[in-house]
Design brief:
Elements (H helix, E strand, L loop, with lengths): L10 H6 L8 E2 L10 H17 L1 H7 L1 H15 L6 E4 L2 H11 L7 E4 L5 H12 L3 E4 L10 H7 L4 E7 L11 H9 L4 E5 L18 E5 L11 E5 L18 E5 L2 E4 L13 H17 L1 H20 L4 E3 L9 E6 L4 H10 L2 E2 L1 E4 L4 H6 L4 E6 L6 H12 L3
Parallel strand pairs: 1-13, 3-4, 3-5, 5-6, 6-7
Antiparallel strand pairs: 2-8, 7-8, 9-10, 11-12, 12-15, 14-15
Helix pairs in contact: 2-3, 2-9, 4-9, 10-13
The structure holds pyridoxal-5'-phosphate.
Length: 397
C-alpha cells in the first residue's frame, strides 16, 4: 500500500475497503453511506457467533468489542464513555434528550431554520401544550443569525435546538458560536449532529453541547439502525427520568423503588441489535483511523468540485447557502423533477437523493424551493466520479 501523508486519505485503500465502488458511484452518503469491509465483517462474524454459542453468551464473549462503541464515540466527540448512550438512530437519540429536558408551559424554546423534520414534529407537539417555540432567523448568508439569537436569548429560554448540518442544504451552521451564546445563559443546548459526525470534526466541549445526537449509517459509515446520544455528565441529575426504562437503564432497588443509572446508560434498554452495536464501534474507529480533519478536507474538496461543475451547466443550479460548506450538495435541474433526476442517475449506477418541501419546511420554504436533488460526497468518491455526475446532469436536456 502506498504511504500517504498522515493528513491525507489513501483513496485506493478506502475504495478497496468499499467493494461497491467497482460497480456503483455512491453519492447518497447523506442518506445512507456504504459500510467499509471491516464493519460488515465484524457484524457478520458477530451474528455467526450468536448463532453458534447463543446470544447472551456471544455478548459476554464480545464484551470488550461491544464496549468499543463508547470508547470510540467518546474519542470522536471529546467526551467520556459514560456520557454516551447507544440508540437505534439519531431521531431516537434526539427525542430521548428532548423528553428529558424539564419544560413547563410558558417556557421558551429556540430553534434554527434548518432543524430536522422529526425534531420539528416534537417541537410542534410541545407547542400545542403551551411551550413557546420560536424560530431563529437566518442571516443573509443562510446560516443561523447569531445576533438575532443573542437578542432572543433571555432567562425564559429553557432550550436551544440546532441542527449543525442540515439535510437540505450544504451549509455547516456555526455551532460552537451558538453554543457559546447559549452557555452564557441558563438554557440547555441540544445539537442534532446527524449529518456532521463522521464528516467534520465534532467536539462537544468546543460546541458547548448539553446533548448531541447522531446516526451510524450516514457519514460514519456504520450499520443502519444505530446511533448515539451524548448527555453532558453535569446535567444528568437535572433531567426528567426517561419514559421507557428497564433493567439496563435503572436498578430495581426495593419493591417500590428504583434508581436510574448515574450515566447515559439510563437512556438505553437491555434489548438492542448487538451485532449492529459492534459494527458501529468498528465504523467509529475506522473514521478515527482516517482522521476527521482529513475526512473533512477531502469531502469539502470534492463537494466544491461538484458545485463548480454544476455552476458551469446551463441546465442546473446549485442551491447551497452558508459560509462554511460541507459534503452535501443540493441543486435543481431545469425541466426535471428531482425524483426523476435521481431515478435517471440510478439507471446509470449513480446513487443520489431527492427531497421535497415537506422534509424541510423551514429551510426550503423560506427559500421558496419545492424540491431538490441532493448528493452527499464522501472521501471514497473521486474527482472522476464527480465529473461523471456533472456530465450526466448536463445530458438531461
Ligand atoms: C439532520 C438530520 N437529523 C436527523 C435525522 C434522522 O436520523 P435517523 O433516521 O437516524 O433517526 C436525519 C436523517 O436524515 C438528518 O438528516
Amino acid at each position: 500500500m502506498t504511504e500517504m501523508p498522515a493528513d491525507e486519505i489513501d483513496v485506493d485503500a478506502v475504495r478497496a475497503d468499499t467493494p461497491a465502488c467497482r460497480h456503483l458511484i455512491h453519492f447518497n452518503n447523506c442518506g445512507t453511506s456504504l459500510p467499509p469491509q471491516p464493519v460488515l465483517e465484524s457484524m457478520i462474524d458477530y451474528l455467526r457467533l450468536e448463532a453458534s454459542i447463543g446470544g447472551y453468551e456471544a455478548a459476554e464473549a464480545e464484551a470488550d468489542g461491544l464496549a468499543r462503541v463508547y470508547r470510540a464515540g467518546a474519542e470522536l466527540l471529546g467526551c467520556g464513555p459514560d456520557e454516551l448512550a447507544f440508540t437505534s438512530g439519531s431521531s431516537e437519540a434526539w427525542w430521548r434528550a428532548f423528553l428529558s429536558v424539564p419544560l413547563a408551559a410558558g417556557d421558551r424554546v429556540l430553534v434554527g431554520r434548518t432543524e430536522y423534520l422529526a425534531n420539528m414534529l416534537a417541537l410542534i407537539q410541545v407547542g400545542e401544550r403551551g411551550i413557546d417555540v420560536e424560530v431563529v432567523p437566518d442571516d443573509p448568508r443562510g446560516q443561523i443569525d447569531l445576533d438575532a439569537l443573542n437578542a432572543m436569548l433571555d432567562e425564559g429560554v429553557r432550550l436551544v435546538c440546532l441542527t449543525s448540518i442540515a439535510m437540505s442544504n450544504g451549509l455547516v451552521n456555526p455551532t460552537a458560536e451558538v453554543g457559546a451564546l447559549v452557555n452564557a445563559t441558563g438554557a440547555y443546548f441540544l445539537v442534532d449532529a446527524c449529518q456532521a459526525v463522521g464528516q467534520i470534526p465534532v467536539d462537544v466541549e468546543a460546541w458547548g453541547c448539553d446533548f448531541l445526537a447522531f446516526t451510524g449509517r450516514k457519514f460514519v459509515r456504520g450499520p443502519r439502525g444505530t446511533g448515539m446520544l451524548y448527555v453532558r455528565r453535569s446535567v444528568m441529575d437535572q433531567l426528567e427520568a426517561p419514559t421507557f426504562i428497564d433493567g439496563r437503564s435503572a436498578e430495581w432497588t426495593s419493591e417500590t423503588s428504583y434508581r436510574l443509572q448515574p450515566t447515559a446508560q439510563r437512556f438505553e434498554l437491555f434489548e438492542t441489535a448487538y451485532g449492529a452495536k459492534l459494527g458501529l464501534g468498528v465504523a467509529l474507529d475506522y473514521a478515527l483511523g482516517l482522521g476527521l480533519a482529513a475526512i473533512e478536507t477531502r469531502v469539502v474538496g470534492l463537494a466544491e468540485s461538484l458545485r463548480t461543475g454544476l455552476d458551469g451547466l446551463a441546465n442546473a443550479r446549485c442551491l447551497d447557502t452558508g459560509i462554511r460548506k460541507c459534503g452535501i450538495v443540493t441543486f435543481e435541474v431545469d425541466g426535471h423533477e428531482s425524483a426523476e433526476v435521481a431515478r435517471r442517475l440510478r439507471s446509470v449506477a449513480i446513487n443520489a437523493g431527492s427531497l421535497g418541501l415537506a422534509s424541510s419546511r423551514l429551510d426550503l420554504g423560506s427559500r421558496s424551493i419545492a424540491e431538490i436533488v441532493r448528493v452527499g460526497v464522501h472521501y471514497f468518491n473521486t474527482e472522476d466520479e464527480v465529473d461523471r455526475l456533472v456530465a450526466e446532469i448536463a445530458s438531461l436536456r
